[in-house]
Amino acid sequence: MNAQNHRGKGMRRRSAGELGYTFVELLVASTCGAVVLASATVFMNFARISSSGIAAQAFVSNSAGHTVEFMQSRIRYATSVAVDATGNTLTLGFDDDFTVDSDGDGSAYNDQDHYETFQFTGTNTTTASACAGNRIIYTRKVGTSGSTVLMSYGVRNLPTYNIFSIANATTVLIRFGVVDASARDRFQSIDIQATGVPLNRPTSSNMVGVIP
Q1: Distance between CA 7 and CA 157 in Å, rounded?
Q2: Which partner from 9, 33, 112, 207 sits 20 to 30 angstroms from 16, CA to CA?
Q3: For 199, left (φ over 0), alpha (ψ -120 to 50), or beta?
Q4: How many degrees, rounded to 5, is the angle at CA 155 between CA 154 and CA 160?
């Protein structure tokens, strides 16, 4: 009988231990789970910000790069280049027919049969917060309707420079920045400095010098 009672008590003790966890064990497990969840949340938030920043920077860089490449391609084939007094508008002249000397100067390749413009619109500023509405617009043919927005936001001046200027009579200097300040965690910017040289430039300006 005593042996049976002893075995019965042992069985009862084991059954009681298998019923569940103690309050302390549950508290420790809950605390560990909360720490892991908080760490995962912080990591995911940083990953989101990083991915957003990379995407925004890539978009700004691609937009600015494509704009400059397009400007250089049009300058390359221009027969004349001019910049207004504000440095905000670049005007290019083009010869529509290289077999016709439309200006009567004895050369058929350097006429200005139509003009195209690249124009900065907005406020001349170097301040990121003031340039959100600034744009660069391309007009395919002056005097006709229709234009294309190349940069739709965030264009700004670089310190002490105009958007457009000319050196050595025909070399076009392009200097501007682009800022994406649409969200606090996605502020991105890029600065562009490039040159464009027309192939049909006059002999008197057929030179390459140090660009200021």
Answers
A1: 90
A2: 33
A3: alpha
A4: 130
pTM over 0.85: no
Residue type, 52: S
- List the domain boundaries for the chain: 36-205
- 179, 152 contact by CB (below 8 A): no
Of the candidates 149, 158, 150, the one whose C-alpha atom is nearest the C-alpha of residue 131 is 158
Q: How far apart are CA 90 and CA 165, in angstroms?
A: 8
Residue-wise pLDDT for 179-188, tens only, equals 886 655 556 7
CA atoms within 13 A on the CB side of 84: 9
E-strand stretches of 122-187: 135-139, 148-151, 155-156, 164-167, 171-180
HSE-up (13 A, CA, CB side) for residue 43: 6
Model confidence pLDDT, tens digit, residues 45-93: 655 555 555 555 667 788 888 999 999 999 999 999 999 999 999 999 9
Q: What is the largest CA-CA distance in the chain?
A: 131
Q: How far, in Å, are 57, 89, 137, 193 from residue 177 at the CA level?
A: 13, 16, 15, 9
